[in-house]
Structures are given as structure tokens and as C-alpha cells.
From TrEMBL:
Taxonomic path: unclassified sequences, metagenomes, ecological metagenomes
Species per Swiss-Prot/TrEMBL record: marine sediment metagenome
Name recorded for this polypeptide: 2-hydroxyacyl-CoA dehydratase
Length: 123
């Protein structure tokens, strides 16, 4: 599950089982899980987003994509289309960079989100 709903246990019987338990936990953490990409488990991103959308009762989905993350850019447009069509949730994709705001300055990101919310989300 997502957002701390998963209760992990650690098998403490041997060092190997403890390491396996920790590896299993890390494998399913959000960033680690998602970085594997959409081809490792088709539908994984959509299932996670659908769960979050339901749990959080979201009004929209906004993707801030770091330009160097080829894993996500390879499938984000398809993902956003699925979110809009299957969940009925409006989506916005913004090109950004976590460390370098020359890609898209923060005021521009804020303006894009405000415009999206005002023209698409709040109708």
C-alpha cells in the first residue's frame, strides 16, 4: 500500500532474512518503486495514482517532471491521459528541474498551476 498504510515486518531469524526484509521494504517505497519504470509492471503507476486519488479525494493531478528523468517522461503523457479518461481527474504536466530553476523558474511554475486551477479545476 501507499503513504504508510503498509505495515512491514522484519524477519529477525537470521542476518539474511533481516536484510531481505529491509530490501523488500525499500523496494516498495514510493520513489524506489516508481523509478523502476512503467515497463517493469505495466499499470503500476496508474494503480498507485488511482489509490491516491481515492484516498486523498484529489481534484487534479500535477506532474512536475525533471527533464533528466527519462523513466517518467517515457510514459507520463499516456499516464496523464489515463488519469483524465479513467478517473475523470484533470491533469497538468510541467517541465522543471529539482535543482536548476533556469529550466522553469518557480514564479512560472506557480503561474502555470494557478492558471490550470482557475481555468480547468475550478470551473
Amino acid at each position: 500500500a501507499i503513504l504508510g498504510h503498509q505495515h512491514y515486518t522484519i524477519d529477525t531469524s537470521t542476518v539474511d532474512t533481516m536484510l531481505d526484509s529491509l530490501a523488500g521494504q525499500a523496494h516498495n517505497m514510493i520513489m524506489t518503486k516508481q523509478i523502476r519504470g512503467p515497463l517493469d509492471y505495466p499499470g503500476q503507476w496508474f494503480e498507485d495514482i488511482a489509490t491516491l486519488a481515492k484516498d486523498l479525494n484529489i481534484d487534479c493531478a500535477i506532474y512536475l517532471g525533471t527533464m533528466g528523468c527519462k523513466n517518467t517522461w517515457g510514459g507520463i503523457k499516456v499516464m496523464m491521459k489515463m488519469i483524465e479518461e479513467e478517473l475523470g481527474i484533470p491533469t497538468l504536466i510541467i517541465h522543471s528541474d529539482t535543482w536548476d530553476d533556469r529550466v522553469t523558474p518557480w514564479p512560472t511554475i506557480r503561474d502555470q498551476i494557478e492558471e490550470f486551477v482557475n481555468t480547468v479545476v475550478v470551473q
